[in-house]
């Protein structure tokens, strides 16, 4: 018999927001269907549910999450703990439902204006998933016709400090790998957005 975490749907919300796990991995751990997990990520269901942190509540370890993030075929293993102790999470604050709907716009903005950012960096910056990023990029998102690139700092999805740090880290990573730093489309450079890529000093 499969042991499910406490508050499976709320746990799924947290895993979607805070990790790069696949929908299938989250679904199997929470006893849900992958399409239901995808619907939560897209903001179609579970809009009033606050994420439940399985790490703070001793149902998962961060090491276990990292192990499964590195291997899409791996399955999360729940900790055998009788009564999880509730503790305040030290992680980022839960993203309000209204802002969750704004995430595709923020993703589109980063893909367009900061092409040096990798999917994993966008995942951490906006609390989204690689699947959602791919759908926004390929215009396969369920709400694609209405997605408009908007600055994630302006709409409250991340701070300017975090955005600058992510762009700087991505630029340094590409330089270390000997790759060319991609530039935004020429039209954007002529009408530069408020937030430009921070310079990287030698």
From TrEMBL:
Organism annotation: Acetobacter indonesiensis
Record protein name field: Cytoplasmic protein
Lineage per the UniProt record: Bacteria, Pseudomonadati, Pseudomonadota, Alphaproteobacteria, Acetobacterales
InterPro entries given in the database record: TrcR
Annotated region described as Disordered, given as residue ranges: 177-202
């Amino acid at each position: 018999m499969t042991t499910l975490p406490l508050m499976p749907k709320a746990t799924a919300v947290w895993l979607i927001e805070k990790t790069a796990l696949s929908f299938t991995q989250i679904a199997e751990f929470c006893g849900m269907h992958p399409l239901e997990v995808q619907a939560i990520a897209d903001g179609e269901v579970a809009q009033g549910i606050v994420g439940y942190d399985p790490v703070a509540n001793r149902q998962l370890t961060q090491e276990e999450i990292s192990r499964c993030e590195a291997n899409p075929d791996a399955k999360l293993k729940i900790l055998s703990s009788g009564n999880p102790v509730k503790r305040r999470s030290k992680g980022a604050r839960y993203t309000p439902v209204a802002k969750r709907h704004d995430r595709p716009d923020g993703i589109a903005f980063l893909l367009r204006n900061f092409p040096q950012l990798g999917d994993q960096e966008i995942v951490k910056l906006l609390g989204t998933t690689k699947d959602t990023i791919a759908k926004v990029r390929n215009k396969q998102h369920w709400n694609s016709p209405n997605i408009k690139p908007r600055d994630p700092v302006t709409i409250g999805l991340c701070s300017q400090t975090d955005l600058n740090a992510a762009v700087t880290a991505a630029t340094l990573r590409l330089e270390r790998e000997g790759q060319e730093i991609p530039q935004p489309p020429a039209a954007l450079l002529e009408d530069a957005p408020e937030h430009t890529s921070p310079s990287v000093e030698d």
